[in-house]
Design brief:
Elements: H1 7-23, H2 31-54, E1 64-74, E2 77-85, H3 89-106, H4 115-134, H5 138-147, H6 149-159, H7 164-192, H8 199-202, H9 209-226, H10 235-242, H11 245-270, H12 272-277, H13 279-298, H14 303-323, H15 325-328, H16 337-371, H17 382-385, H18 387-400, H19 407-422, H20 424-449, H21 456-459, H22 466-484, H23 487-504
Antiparallel strand pairs: 1-2
Helix pairs in contact: 1-2, 1-4, 2-3, 2-4, 3-4, 3-11, 3-16, 4-5, 4-6, 4-11, 5-7, 6-7, 7-9, 7-10, 9-11, 10-14, 11-14, 11-16, 13-14, 13-20, 14-16, 14-19, 14-20, 16-18, 16-19, 16-22, 16-23, 18-20, 18-22, 19-20, 19-22
Length: 511
């Protein structure tokens, strides 16, 4: 039914054009119309992304829903509007469109100042992020990658907290400067490739080990900032603290995944020899993020900062799962099952973290809207006055700590299995997050939700309304569903991950 539809273009440009229409509704006098239009566009975009899953052929690891048109040429350089997705990009696109609907609903009553501009920024950002996941031309990828910084910059800068200017400048400089090195790498490879930026061609581009090392480092500088990895993570807590709730949700749920996606789409397949050579560095940085940043989260007094550092720690599992491949592969047995398990676990962790981190920031947002404080010390006994809300909050906290039965457990467990195959010490350090994560998460839950009512502000709290109940319950269903039944995720990505693994290990694995 949808074979002749340009589905990817529709999912990219519907929210972008829709965001422009929302802007055209005018100022705050038409705020209700802007909100309704934004919700309609977000729901339509999400609906358009569903056929990508239902029509996807999970038995094939090749790109699907291909759109290929000539864009422009400059000298010998050729640029194409080339789109396509595999089983790795697909769940990330659906996560993006899904979370955009949640963000619009979450900000419905909260954003009273420039509501149209707020909603439009997230719609446009959604389309640009889907563009990043869909682009199969390096130049097109870079355009989408850089363009999405603009609406995020405005979201923090206009609707952020007291130090929003500092946070936006730091966010922009970190991410933009890292991306410049990626652009240089693209231009170098395009010159070697006859002027073409086609990503699938770059995957097979013959590069010397020295060239691979330089290109890998260029990609590392771009993607590690976006993940973010230690030690280039310091922009994230500031951005989260100053961003409005919707900004924190999109940062944690989707934007951090862009850097991880870059490692899978570029670093591993284009520079496999350099990836192998520097795997020790990536594994070390990942384990530092998992363990050290977990301890940093433990001492935070601001709930948003705690969750921000928690995100960095959990994303360490993602990069660990990607680069543990080189410590697992045995040329004699040529067994790749555990390598696939590790990468599958990392991708599941990306999706799971998208739901859980978004839910955690929305929980903080609900409380902030009532008391206007994110300090743990300003709360206590919230469960006495907001029992329904507290039940959701505790569920998401358990998922954040990796409780079995929630999606937070599945990805971490698969990565730990792969890490144990590589080196038991890797697994031990990675598994420590289950203890550290439980420590900082439960310590926060105990101080915020349980015990006696701490003060008059907490005493006067009212439980969540139907709007808040809706978006929290939807996220709770997702967290439990993928925790109990992760097969829909694993099945759709398995063949694509297998295809990737066989590519990066060539010619070590016979075809």
């Amino acid at each position: 039914m949808f074979e002749s539809w340009p589905l990817l273009s529709l999912v990219i440009w519907t929210p972008i054009i829709g965001g422009m229409l929302v802007l055209a509704t005018g100022g705050d006098k038409n705020a209700t119309e802007a909100r309704v239009l934004a919700l309609v566009i977000a729901v339509i975009t999400f609906a358009l992304s569903i056929p990508l899953y239902t029509e996807f052929n999970s038995s094939s690891g090749s790109m699907q829903f291909i759109e290929h048109h000539e864009w422009m040429s400059l000298g010998k350089m050729r640029f194409y509007y080339h789109l396509g997705i595999d089983g790795i990009a697909l769940p990330l696109i659906i996560l993006t469109t899904f979370m955009t609907v949640i963000i619009v609903i979450a900000g419905w009553e909260v954003i009273k100042f420039k509501a149209a501009q707020y909603m439009a920024a997230f719609l446009i950002m959604s389309g640009l992020m889907v563009g990043v996941f869909s682009a199969l031309d390096g130049a097109l990828f870079y355009v989408f990658w850089e363009a999405m910084l603009i609406p995020m910059f405005l979201v923090i800068g206009v609707w952020g907290g007291p130090n929003r200017v500092y946070a936006t400048i730091k966010f922009f400089l970190y991410t933009f400067l890292g991306s410049v090195f990626m652009l240089v790498a693209f231009i170098y490879m395009a010159n070697k490739n006859g002027g073409s930026f086609e990503i699938l061609e770059l995957h097979s581009l013959p590069l010397t080990k020295t060239e691979q090392m330089y290109i890998f480092i260029a990609f590392l500088l771009a993607f590690s900032v976006k993940v973010p990895m230690w030690p280039v993570h310091t922009w994230l807590p500031d951005a989260h603290v100053e961003a409005p709730t919707g900004g924190s949700v999109v940062l944690a749920a989707i934007m951090l995944k862009l850097g991880a996606y870059g490692f899978l789409r570029f670093s591993l397949p284009i520079t496999p020899d350099a990836s192998q050579e520097l795997a020790w560095l990536m594994i070390t940085l990942s384990l530092i993020a998992v363990v050290y940043i977990g301890f940093v989260a433990l001492v935070q007094k601001d709930m948003k900062k705690l969750i921000a550092y928690s995100s960095i720690s959990h994303m360490g599992f993602v990069t660990l799962g990607f680069f543990i491949v080189w410590s697992i592969y045995d040329p004699q047995t040529q067994d790749v099952k555990m390598i696939i398990t590790g990468i599958n676990g990392a991708v599941v962790q990306m999706i799971s973290h998208g739901f859980i981190s978004a839910a955690m920031f929305l929980v903080v947002g609900v409380m902030y809207d009532r008391i206007h404080s994110r300090q743990i010390a300003d709360y206590g006994g919230v469960a006495n006055t907001m029992p329904t809300f507290a039940a959701f909050a505790v569920l998401f906290a358990m998922a954040n700590a990796g409780l079995p039965g929630t999606s937070g457990f599945v990805g971490e467990f698969l990565v730990i299995l792969a890490a144990f195959k590589a080196n038991p010490w890797f697994a031990f350090l990675a598994a420590s997050t289950l203890i550290i994560g439980a420590a900082y998460t439960l310590w926060m839950v105990k101080r915020v939700f349980f015990g006696e009512v701490a003060n008059e502000k907490v005493k006067n709290l009212t439980d969540i309304n139907s709007r808040e109940f809706f978006f929290l319950s939807v996220l709770a269903v997702m967290v439990l569903f993928f925790g109990l039944y992760p097969a829909p995720l694993l099945e759709v990505m398995d063949e694509s991950v297998t295809n990737l693994v066989r590519h990066i290990l060539q010619p070590k694995i016979p075809q």
